[in-house]
Amino acid sequence: MFYRPEDGHGLPHNPFNAIVSPRPIGWISTRGADGSENLAPYSFFNAVAYVPPQVMFASTSAKPDRDGTKDSVANIRETACFCVNVVEYAMRDAMNRTSGPWEREVDEFDLAGIARAECETVACSRVAAAPANLECRLTRIVQLPGEANFVVFGEVTGIHLRDDCLKDGRFDVTAFQPVSRLGYRDYARVTELFSLARPGE
């Protein structure tokens, strides 16, 4: 089949997210200027550069109490920092709990019973038990076409790696099985790897 998104797909559910998958999940922790904290997962997330290391995530909806966006972006506008927490399979339910449309006063760390630790290089909390955390300083926020579509870019200023995830000098994702987002309500986890050598290597 072929369809133009502007005309609609005619299927029971939108296939777009299922096509662009799997997508890593950026579990974003932020702190507002008033000291309030927020933790929310974003599946439009990825690393975008090596030197300096940089990441991005996109927020695509809004809350009525957040001036056309969501808590994460609103907090980052105020404090210019955030932390990306890697989601392991064992924390899938806690991650999902933090995805709800909670009021801005709700602290998702407390709501989902998640232990927090202070970041080292930026002023916000991180998920203490996560396999890895990327502390980030905001570089820019870009508004995309469409209502409430914002992309947040950050430079990674500090990295935490959980000791049990380091095997023979490598960060071993099979040790914690990262969770990725698929389409619809579906997720996947990484349980095995294969390697390919690039031409000329």
UniProtKB/TrEMBL annotation:
Residues covered by the Flavin reductase like domain: 20-173
Protein name: Flavin reductase-like, FMN-binding protein
InterPro entries the UniProt entry points to: Flavin_Rdtase-like_dom, Split_barrel_FMN-bd
Top-level lineage group: Bacteria
Single annotated GO MF: oxidoreductase activity, acting on the CH-NH group of donors, NAD or NADP as acceptor
